[in-house]
């Protein structure tokens, strides 16, 4: 359980502050994360990694000569926002293109994807390769749909070495796809972890059992098994992973493997060493040769107890990259030429103040700001329940994410009101703030939707109820398109679509009445999500959903739409 | 809780096997621990560290160029035996003398001290400096009586650098005393740890509180306090340690400090970074300059949750040693000249088989072997209860230590019987095996006592009851002398003295009857230890003793004397 906390919402920021101070020789802070302190050659492809915090050394611990050039640092277990990713990439790019790598989770895919699109429009050459090493999360045929766990380390280490060798962005991207294709992990969890500020664990594992393939945020695994000896565990991990060993003698693979035995946090070194001594015997028995084993904590989940085994099936190039020198806060190997004499100069991202809108629009903007404050209050009241709901099938961060997003949006709205901004600007900024503050999938969708609603308004005049309804319907429908989910996937879309349909079909009813009906439709639909059967286990939605619990995203959406209805009714 | 285990008794050995395999470039196994793989210069003073296992990286993780030359590796939380220490020192010594360093605990002091005496008799120049950084364990005036915790790391790091600079054994010893004198730690515990194979934690910390100064094996601390914010914790640790800051401007100290923020196992990196960001602000506010902070896990206690702060008040020499290059499994810094091309050759220690004694003595030896097997059975039955009793005031390893010791002694006795050995040889070997198998203070005392009893017997003839009684009285009285404790200290001596007195005073009663009376005296005395008041808090006896629980060493002694009485009665 996390014990050293000031304000839980500030935990990732506070922690990153300490990290950048301790390792100032390696990293310097930028908006959204860190980049190397030392300058890199201009011709060097930049490797930018990232994801939620709470997994140290992943990802910021790998920034330094020989591995990554920058790391985007999200909130605990929540993907960073697109604006964070943009900022880190701008500071890390050496003019030769940037490869972004992260574990394959919905929020990361969404935010990093948005950032890449925006930066490409600015002329950057941005590539993305998702890491998909966890064999528990999908079938061998769907290797590229799996989620990323401790395999993040060998994959990123290898790609960083390829970048350091001076290869082009095309070549580095090819290495990244290749090494991800040759890397397999399987993990077990012995106990859950507790988020900063929370008094209950995110999930639990029954005493005397372990969760086979349980995700690093508590996502469902393959099975709950009875805890046996270390020998049993070694046998299980090795045999499952070797089911996916590529044929020896083909494509340069002849049985040489990189090995990572990774502790999740509370499973300590002595246990990892013991397990490795068993794993190495089994690998040798299978005719494999171990190349530089790493037995350590490289991808943790706060104080979760558990362990994973990762194998990378090497060819000549991959072996050279795996063994190449590296010098980062959390992993050092060999001797790296120190270019630290030249400091990399980075400029802080600044935000312009909002400009004033027409008085009529500014008046409407004030009312919107009041509604956003009400939304913040609702999410704070519901935080605990939403988190619990989310921990059944997701990573338990939904409650906190909604609080962070709505708080940032309300704060942004207050600033816009103070600047006399119009309603369009206020909502565009509030949307960006929500996305930035919350991170995660839901943060991206809420932020995008708010901005889209703003697009339907105007800074030059007040708009009427019909225009408001059209704007809200447009923003709400955009969620379906942005997230790629459809009704029945057990996501917030199950509630947003009925809401938008009801609002659109309200004809010329007054806004308050129309909204009340639409909110009721959303509430009914959200409650219905509890009875949906488990859908296909898609890695991008954190594995299969469980039956019997409503989708927290649909529930929170319906709650906030009810809050808006209440606000409109009191006017 | 430790989850990855085969046979709990083999846990430290199994774990060390994995460690030496993973880090074979750094360390090679020898009897009792590890030494560097690479050869060292002949003129280099050897630094041998050690202690119980369960604290990785302490101590084996620090073996390599720039720090230690060897590490003695005991059982979990139990000091290694003297024979283990001898073996590692013989393999590590470069001909220029060896400095042994370890945290100041009774078992370590006893075993390493015995090893040093024996090796000095062989012509080795052996020095010992105990590490005493934990300000919670004794007053500032008694700094050298305090126990050693995370300060082990900066102290050992500094001394290793002095040895690597090529200083003489006198100079290196002086550096060791100096840096220990300038190093202060204070730790807090949030939750206990669980020994391998155990289902209950060694100790617990009440939810919402922390143990201030609680030892790394659960030894009593200063107080139980309510858990506040990270700011509160930083303030507490910094202010308490700075109470012992030496005057600035004297002895070369001008406010420059080495800083270690150490996690005990389940308190993870993000929390340590956050705490450091607060600590560094407070240190700067106090006018101090931080020299290369280390914020990491360097001295753990299995999966215990907790953290400690260590400051070393630097002068010019200490700062140079602190910053010097090092290359070990758990700590790397700068660039070390690799002498790995030359492998250090070590020879395995071998034990001669026992030679046969006279048939009459061998007959008596067989009976002793049967008694030793009965002792093993008794300790196995009592293991859990003894461990629980020990966890109140000690480190909870007494039950396991007694099982390991008696098992090794019984096995050794079986081998002696098979070789036809006489009773003197059988007991001498059984004593050495007990000490070796158990480690810890109790192991040293039991082993020494058995050997001493053997000294009173003969391999050439059977001895009569009077001679047996004299030998047993002599062996039992030796415990007082070896351990340095007296009656009333709440140690096993509280039971051994009444036992020896009763046996000695039995006149010419038959052996079985005399032993029965002496065993009863031991039982009464052991029970009485529960009512002793807390004695002075001596670091060497793991801090102050608590009232109300009998001393586990006295209890186990009386139990085993009862077992012997039962055996004698059935004959």
From TrEMBL, chains A, B:
Entry annotated with the keyword Nucleotide-binding: yes
GO cellular component: cytosol
Entry's Gene Ontology molecular function annotations: ATP binding; glycerone kinase activity
Keywords of the record: ATP-binding, Kinase, Nucleotide-binding, Transferase
Chain intervals for the UniProt region annotation (Disordered): 333-359
Database matches in PROSITE patterns: DHAK, DHAL
InterPro entries attached to this UniProt entry: DhaK_dom (IPR004006), DhaL_dom (IPR004007), DhaL_dom_sf (IPR036117), Dihydroxyacetone_Kinase (IPR050861)
Protein name: D-erythrulose kinase
Domain DhaL, first and last residues per copy: 366-566
SMART domains, per database record: Dak2
Domain named DhaK: residues: 7-331
Transferase among keywords: yes
GO BP field: glycerol catabolic process; phosphate-containing compound metabolic process
Organism: Ancrocorticia populi
Domain of life (superkingdom): Bacteria
């Amino acid at each position: 359980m996390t014990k050293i906390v000031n304000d839980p919402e500030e935990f990732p920021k506070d922690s990153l502050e300490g990290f950048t101070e301790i390792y100032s020789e390696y990293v310097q802070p930028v908006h959204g994360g860190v980049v190397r302190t030392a300058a890199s050659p201009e011709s060097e492809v930049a490797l930018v990694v990232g994801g939620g915090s709470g997994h140290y050394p992943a990802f910021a611990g790998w920034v330094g000569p020989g591995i990554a050039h920058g790391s985007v640092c999200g909130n605990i277990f929540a993907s960073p926002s697109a604006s964070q990713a943009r900022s880190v990439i701008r500071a890390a790019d050496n003019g030769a293109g940037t490869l972004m790598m992260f574990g394959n989770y919905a929020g990361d895919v969404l935010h990093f994807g948005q950032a890449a699109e925006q930066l490409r429009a600015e002329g950057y050459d941005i590539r993305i390769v998702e890491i998909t090493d966890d064999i528990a999360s999908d079938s061998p045929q769907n290797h590229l749909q799996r989620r990323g766990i401790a395999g993040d380390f060998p994959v990123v280490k290898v790609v960083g070495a390829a970048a350091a060798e001076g290869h082009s962005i095309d070549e580095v991207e090819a290495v990244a796809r290749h090494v991800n294709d040759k890397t397999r992990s399987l993990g077990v969890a012995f106990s859950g972890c507790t988020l900063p500020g929370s008094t209950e664990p995110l999930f639990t594992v029954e005493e005397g059992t372990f969760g086979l393939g349980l995700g690093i945020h508590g996502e469902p695994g393959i099975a709950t098994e009875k805890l046996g000896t270390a020998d049993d565990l070694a046998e299980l991990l090795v045999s499952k992973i070797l089911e996916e060993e590529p044929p020896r003698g083909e494509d340069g693979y002849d049985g040489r493997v990189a090995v990572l035995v990774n502790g999740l946090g509370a499973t300590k070194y002595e246990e990892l060493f013991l397990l490795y001594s068993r794993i190495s015997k089994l690998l040798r028995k299978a005719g494999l040769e171990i190349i530089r084993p790493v037995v350590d904590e490289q991808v943790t989940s706060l104080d979760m107890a558990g362990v994973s085994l990762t194998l990378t099936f090497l060819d000549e190039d991959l072996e050279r990259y795996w063994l190449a020198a590296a010098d980062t806060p959390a992993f050092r190997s060999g001797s790296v030429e120190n270019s630290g004499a030249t400091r990399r100069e980075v400029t802080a991202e600044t935000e312009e103040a909002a400009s004033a809108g027409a008085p009529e629009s500014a008046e409407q903007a004030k009312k919107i700001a009041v509604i956003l404050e009400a939304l913040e209050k609702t999410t704070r009241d519901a935080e605990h329940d939403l988190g619990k709901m989310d921990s059944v099938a997701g990573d338990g961060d939904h409650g906190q994410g909604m609080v962070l997003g709505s708080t940032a949006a309300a704060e942004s709205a207050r600033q816009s009101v103070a600047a006399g901004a119009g309603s369009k600007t206020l909502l565009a900024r509030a949307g960006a703030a929500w996305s930035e503050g919350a991170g995660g999938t839901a943060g991206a969708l809420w932020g995008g939707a708010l901005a889209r609603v703003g697009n339907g308004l105007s800074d030059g005049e007040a708009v009427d109820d019909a225009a408001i309804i059209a704007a809200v319907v447009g923003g709400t429908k955009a969620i379906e398109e942005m997230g790629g989910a459809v009704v029945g996937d057990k996501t917030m879309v199950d509630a947003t679509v009925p809401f938008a349909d009801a609002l659109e079909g309200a004809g010329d009813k007054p806004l308050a009445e129309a909204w009340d009906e639409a909110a009721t439709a959303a509430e009914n639909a959200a409650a219905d999500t509890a009875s949906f059967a488990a859908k296909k286990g898609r890695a991008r939605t954190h594995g299969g959903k469980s039956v019997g619990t409503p989708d927290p995203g649909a529930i929170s959406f319906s709650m906030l739409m009810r809050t808006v209805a209440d606000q409109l009714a009191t006017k």
